[in-house]
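Revision sheet: structure tokens.
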Amino acid sequence: MKLVFLGVGKMGLPMASHLLADGHAVEVYDVDAHRLALAQAAGLVVAQDLGAVLSQADGVFSSLPHDAALIDTATRVAQHLRAGGFYLDTSTVSVAASAAVADLLAPNACDYLRVTVSGNNHMAHAGQLTLMASGPQAAWQRVAPMLKRWGTVQFYLGPAEQARLMKLVINLMIGQTSAMLAEALSLGHKGGLAWRDLWQVIGASAVASPIVKAKAVQLSTRDFTPTFTVPQMLKDIDLILAEADALQVPLLQTAITRQMMLSALAQGWAEQDYAAIIKVVEQSAGIHQE
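Predicted:
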């Protein structure tokens, strides 16, 4: 297939590379010249005339940072993608923005697939993402086999925006896990438990979810190198709370976690992992680690 991948960031680049490795012709585009240089180094072709490339593509993929980028990109795709093609977006965006894209693409007789992913950039490179898809089911059945290199755990959730909402549900739980750890670790450590012992026992306990185990690898040594930064998590929490407002679902704990993320920003930890909210609770408890 002739494919175009728009947005080769930390997640987009490994996903585009997997498509190339599967034997597809893949051209890429990004507004960031550094990311394009990395894509070229990975063997991907940079699109020179994006409109022409889109008009010749069998399918277009995108991995984008926010609602505005999705709307802008989808507008361009709608102008050029031919009937019978498909547009597959993996971004974490609002349900409303995704629905607006569906309206943009409807006159084009092309299939719009929302395929959100759960996992970080390391899991993307390893092909260990969990895929959550919605959109036309027949189109998903055609496309799903080519995404096995992204991850073999794949769910089809419905014909419209179900994948967008499912992604927000998962990220709500990830954000709340970090808040739970912040309080539990601070309680244990101030009470005299060794930091490494806390992680070792938690990792072997009934609450040792995959995300807890993954965080333990770094955080047991107090390494806050980001897999997902504080501003990125704050953006997702804002999407979650906005959708909760629209559905009239009170998310009290999530609202408190947002305040913890804001505190992490105020402390200058924007470029650290979102688990830096552990340090927010430590400071409020008078624990001085660093």
